[in-house]
Design a protein that fits this description.
heterodimer; A: 201 residues; mainly alpha; 10 helices; 0% strand; B: 259 residues; alpha+beta; 4-stranded antiparallel beta sheet; 8 helices; elongated
């Protein structure tokens, strides 16, 4: 995968903040394809997906002052905005969160993390997909219901007919296993996942 | 009212927070805790950023060439927050999107939305609509039309998007109750013109389905008393009166296949 260096994104963020529209165009050239793939996966409608990608890049342009390149990844922030807006569209009149709140929380959730950044930078989409595919089916289902379908863990518990603790535990175990699988060659924080009551391994 | 979370509760919700799988109150509570807590919450923070693996595992899409131009045009007339003095968090207006066309309340709908709703509302709307009837004026009726489509879609019924210069909407096919065309933001017409709906087979042969006209609320519900099987597309033209063959320009159209 030819992922750009993080400092490229830092420079891009600085240029966007200074009002450089060409920099936003470069950001678009860099990430529009994955942004579109994400939106299509969520809303399953190409026309709507392109609208959502458009809106997400406009949001980055407008809200760039809120983004701190020292604390987060510009790509992660953008993709989280795309995902949030796609879920918002999917849920229609029943959003789980106002879009501005979601955008603000996207800043926290897109915190720079060497584990995931390195894993993404060094692996192709197929390799990342392969890592996800190694998860136990119920854990893979849980993270896909969360990320791509926009379900809360409470909703996942209902959908999959398991206790709340199990649904939450599956999310935790899924991310822990994913981290373990992706750290084969990448350095990862030496953090053991806390036990997840009610969750099967 | 939102509860304050202790350290253990925040850690417990870490993966769900990272994946955006908390409801609004819980997510806000976790975010506030992280913003002020002196504890490192190393396990939780090690999960932040994990959510990017999912989109990056997808095969990249290919945006249409127009999308970049549209974005740059929008950005060219959109100010950044610091240019408007910086709006407080939570009060920032939505991006001034140029979506390349009119956007209305129908745009909240897609064939994938609102699965948990019921189908019954569509039946209710069709029961009061009648052939060639346009719902007039009332917001309640507009909402009912919206609910009708959402409910039909969410109930697993088939919905086909229709759009064009005259408006946007869906043809909803409900087994046992027939199909209906529901259009929002329907454009006004001169007094001597009406809209006519056509079904076309694979060879492009049109069959007249019915006529309708915009009401004051610009929401039209047009029952389609025909089996959609065997037809490939539908179209709406502007005509001087109900005709057996179209003479006017197509102002809305859609395909009778899943998007």
């Amino acid at each position: 995968m030819t992922d750009p260096q993080p400092n490229d994104d830092t420079l891009l963020a600085q240029r966007i903040r200074s009002g450089d529209r060409d920099a936003l165009g470069e950001l678009y050239d860099r990430y529009a394809s994955v942004a579109l793939a994400t939106a299509i996966r969520v809303v399953a409608d190409r026309e709507q997906a392109e609208d959502l990608v458009h809106d997400a890049f406009v949001a980055v342009w407008q809200k760039i002052d809120r983004f701190d390149p020292m604390r987060g990844s510009l790509r992660a922030w953008l993709l989280t905005i795309v995902r949030n807006r796609s879920i918002d569209r999917l849920r229609g009149a029943h959003p789980s969160m106002a879009i501005d709140d979601a955008d603000d929380q996207a800043l926290i959730r897109s915190s720079a993390n060497p584990t995931w950044e390195a894993a993404i930078a060094r692996r192709s989409a197929a390799e990342l997909r392969g890592a996800i595919d190694t998860l136990p089916p119920e854990q893979r289902q849980a993270i896909e219901l969360a990320y791509f379908a926009g379900n809360t863990y409470r909703e996942i518990a209902v959908i999959t007919n398991v206790p709340l603790g199990t649904a939450n535990g599956r999310l935790r175990l899924a991310l822990a296993k994913l981290r373990e699988s992706l750290q084969w060659t990448d350095a990862a924080p030496a953090v053991e996942p806390a036990s997840a009551p009610g969750a099967e391994r | 009212m939102r509860e304050r979370l202790d350290h253990a509760a925040v850690d417990e919700l870490g993966a769900a927070f990272a994946l955006g799988a908390l409801d609004a109150d819980e997510a806000r509570a976790v975010a506030e805790h992280l913003a002020t807590c002196p504890e490192p919450h190393a396990e939780l923070r090690s999960l932040l950023g994990a959510q990017d693996v999912l989109p990056m595992s997808l095969d990249p899409g290919t945006p249409s060439p127009r999308l970049r131009d549209r974005l740059m045009a929008t950005v060219g007339r959109t100010r950044q927050e610091h240019e408007r003095g910086g709006a407080p968090v939570g009060q920032q207006p939505e991006p001034e999107g140029d979506r390349g066309g009119r956007r209305g309340w129908f745009d909240w709908l897609s064939p994938q939305v609102a699965r948990p709703l019921a189908v019954a509302a569509l039946v209710a709307v069709l029961a009061v609509a009648g052939w060639n009837v346009v719902l007039q004026g009332q917001l309640a009726e507009r909402d009912r039309a919206l609910h009708a489509v959402a409910s039909a879609i969410s109930g697993g019924q088939t919905a086909f998007r229709v759009e064009g210069s005259a408006g946007r909407g869906y043809v909803v096919d409900t087994p046992g109750s027939g199909a209906a065309l529901v259009i929002a933001d329907l454009a006004a017409l001169p007094a001597n013109r009406i809209y006519e709906l056509w079904l076309l087979d694979a060879a492009g042969t049109p069959v007249a389905v019915g006529t309708f006209a915009p009401g004051s609320d610009a929401v039209a519900v047009v029952p389609v008393d025909r089996d959609l099987a065997g037809y490939a597309t539908f179209a709406v033209t502007v005509e001087p009166s109900r005709l057996d063959a179209p003479t006017g320009t197509i102002v809305m159209q859609g395909h009778l296949s899943a998007s």
